[in-house]
Amino acid sequence: xxxxxxxxxxxxxxxxxxxxxxxxxxxxxxxxxxxxxxxxxxxxxxxxxxxxxxxxxxxxxxxxxxxxxxxxxxxxxxxxxxxxxxxxxxxxxxxxxxxxxxxxxxxxxxxxxxxxxxxxxxxxxxxxxxxxxxxxxxxxxxxxxxxxxxxxxxxxxxxxxxxxxxxxxxxxxxxxxxxxxxxxxxxxxxxxxxxxxxxxxxxxxxxxxxxxxxxxxxxxxxxxxxxxxxxxxxxxxxxxxxxxxxxxxxxxxxxxxxxxxxxxxxxxx
Length: 269
Hints:
By secondary structure, the chain is an alpha/beta fold. The protein contains 8 helices and 7 strands, in the order βαβαβαβαβαβαααβ.
């Protein structure tokens, strides 16, 4: 069964995990609404899907603007007759909003902290709210949120992002409880460092980016960065009927980095 004919809305899908998930889901027969702030990149993703024989449309959306979000869900329903899956993927990190050297509590502008929370934790709730009228009409409805290993473990210069991802993890459980009577599943996943532009920017904030990247990889039992498409495979599974007994949970996709308290070097890797 998989995701064949399921109707996806994926926020922030002009690049990274969102892009990879959109293309993967479409290749598996899903109908995908690509949305992003960057129209050029978002349109390119939707066009690439169509050129490969898939079904996709693009809709501009600022996930922090309720009017934009409402329009996104209306456009998705108009394009494909409804919504089955909402993938709340859009996210930002403080290192993308301010001088990387000021991403600590002493120096970080308060507005930066608030913006990260708004995009990563408040916006998924807004998107879920406006998708709800359509999801409740689906026979295989689910919401899939992007959390992070940062939702349960601290990293340098990560207080805003970590706080937001901790919030989305608990939001997932609360929405699962609220929406279970409507037959809507709500889950989230926690990736470690994935080879995306956002992670690349985070790595660049270090005085020694190569060494910092290696430190992120070193704790993994799979000693490399994750690939966006690997996360996309998990999203597609969680969206599928085969995951029908999975609800209100958080699934790590971290190469084993949080499975222990050592580094790969300790294993002779």
